[in-house]
Write a structure and sequence with these properties.
This protein is α/β, with parallel strands linked by helices. It has a single domain, classed as NAD(P)-binding Rossmann-like Domain (Rossmann fold, 3-Layer(aba) Sandwich). It is built from eight helices and seven strands, in the order E-H-E-H-E-H-E-H-E-H-E-H-H-H-E. Helix 4 packs parallel to helix 5. The longest helix has 28 residues.
Length: 254
Amino acid sequence: MKLFDLTGRVALITGGNGGIGFAMAKALGEAGAKIVIAGRNQEKNNQSITKLQLLNIDATSLIVDVVDEVSCNKLIDDTVAHFGKLNILVNNAGTNIRKRPEEYQLDEWKSIIDTNLVSMFTCSKACFKHFKAVDSGKIINIGSMHSLFGAPLGSAYSASKGGVVQLTKSLANAWAKDNIQVNAVLPGYIDTTLTRQARIDIPELQARVEERTPVGRWGQPDDLGGIAVFLSSEASNYVSGTAIPVDGGYSING
């Protein structure tokens, strides 16, 4: 369907070498976009690119440290140098440290905020001039259902993801006149490396999530592919500043 056709577009996905980021990269590539995966681990980057190329997706990878402004600026410029332009940014890189609030060291707290929130501002700001050059742009910020709920073992994570929603609204408002749409996606409990560790740390989590989630299961990374294509395509040209849960109904089942 033409509304969802991304042929000729260039998409950059931070943290795109695994989990939700890779699933979104694959979906965008299958919709026709050229893909740049950005991550710190070159081996994981290479493995992800090989998988995409086996699907006949035009893809490359770049090394980035998202908490370093110089590295983020270079990432954006190198993407444009490689493919000639940039149309879509998926701010997906993220981390977590599970502790009670009183147990955090300040440097741990700051590292989560810097990775999950500050990096989104830095990469988005670096993209602005390139989006202006093509008179359009799409930014997808990956929040979390913890943008809506407070986690007793994740106060820094919840604070960072709450900030993602407000940053999304602010960027959407500031850049609307430049034909740049900015939206957030709030994944629920998705089966990834991070949540597998959570189920080790919190043994009752598996059953608790399945009981509360109306669809009765944990999400899979590929469940996020469709929303990524929608928010990257012309189908969402009048959608901006939103925060869309993709959680199997978890957040509506109080």
